[in-house]
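<context>
A single protein, sequence plus fold
<entry> Chain with its tokenised backbone below
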Amino acid sequence: MTKALEGAAEGVAVPRGPIGKTKLFFATHWVRGVPGQPTPEWVLRFAYGMWLVAFTFKVLGSSWDMSWHFKFIRDDFAPPHLINTVGTGIVIVLVAIHSYTGLGCDRRSLRLMQAGLVMFLIAAPLDVINHRVSGVDLTAWSPTHMLLYIGTGVMLAGVIDGWLKSAPPGRFRTLVLTGLWVFFLENTFFPNGQQEYGIISLRAWERGAPEAEPSLLSFAAEQIGHPVDRVAVLHFAMPIADWVYPLWGIGVSALVLALARHTIGRAWAATAVAAAYVAYRAIIWPLLVVGMFPASAIPFYLLAVGLAVDVAFRIGRAHRVLTPLVGGLLVTAFGYGALWLQAQLRPWLLGDAHTESAPPFAYWPALVVLVGLPVLWWALTRVRTHREVAVS
């Protein structure tokens, strides 16, 4: 069954299903072209819909992968890796199509897609080699892991840039753009999962019910020449300094949400992006528990960070200096206040139970957020404004 979509203007009935659309695309549009040429709307929607599918596979795989590595010793062909690989395969095909046809992108967005993919494909085998040489990588913050995140972030920046320039204004454009920013926030925030899973794993060991397999605990202890005790488990689960978590979770996340609010251009867009990400984390939490995999603390405080960004835009009324200044103040107050409140939920509700509602965190980075966030926010807004003026 088919329906008349935008392609009907070309005398072509566009199939409903992805297989039919794929066949039609290769039959009618698989022609070499340069970036920036007009793209039929059905092709644009189909291509960027597949981008959303690709990143969905990658997020599902990476979420399970984080939990997996707090239970088992690494396995290159573990199910989470295979799910992530499906997403990567779709990404490779999409970048190849954009590169060959030039549809759905301009030169800059295409270069970002290509550069991000290349970085990711370089980082993946380097990470495998690192594990072959060094064994289990005990932190999400390792150089090879960071290169994977950076590559994915650059790729997502290209997709967001391409969609902004290619999609016609309207509700569908806003929804897809919001979804892409949710994926960007997830990719940026992902390393903080080390502390969110780590603190729960440490408390599980302390209460005599370790979630990690004995082989993983023994391997982690051997890496530091130590017996399997609290010191070894702490090194395995919580190797990152306490100042990193709030600086990244509040300060860097606020920058992402500020850019999302600026590009989406709708009231409460930052809150919507943060809420969608937190909702996803809340949904996979019981799924992991039911599947007997380690769970994590959920960053509910991100809702307050998103709200602070939106309120700053409302008070600042898009002023290039006032908005970042107000944003720095509100993000610091709302973000740290909400994180502190979340950390109190365990003692208030569960008493001395060996679990936590938030990872441990340092308070002094609040000064860095208060001072540094407005400067970076202003700089990013200024750069983006100049680019928009240049394009127009």
Summary: The radius of gyration is 22 Å. The first strand starts at residue 2 and ends at 3.
